[in-house]
Amino acid sequence: MSYSRMGEKICTAVMFVIVAGYTLYARLYSVGTVQDPGPGLFPLILGFFTWVLAGILLVSLCMDCKQASEDAEKPAAGGTKPCGSMWRTLLGPVQVVGSIVLYCVTADWIGHILAATIMLVWMAWIARAPRWRTAITVAAVSVLSGYLVFTRWLGVPLPKGWL
Known about the structure:
Elements: H1 3-26, H2 41-63, H3 65-73, H4 86-110, H5 112-126, H6 132-153
């Protein structure tokens, strides 16, 4: 099995466990009804569907195990076996989690707008965005539209910080 495929399985399994814990924790809040939703309804629905999707992804990765191991044994186009580092494979997901943690730590201090923009630009850098200007523009538009939706339309207070 290639390191890349193993990294996908490990990340998916970790996501499956984290989302299962998130869903179980969401059950502690009042769910309410569809007409009068409680604070636990949206997290419970989101957690359940994310957990199902992670389970489907994990099962599909495990089903492809035999095919992936056969493909790993075949030489690449240049005549060499494909190689990769498990740590390099896991670096992207670790950086994504790190950017989310950074947002959580800094949002109260510097505000939602700046913290979310930094987080999204960092994620664009992780995804190897072709242009910085595009990454910054997409991040700014996403953050501002999300801010307007949550604060103006839904009435959800977001961290203000010094902005």
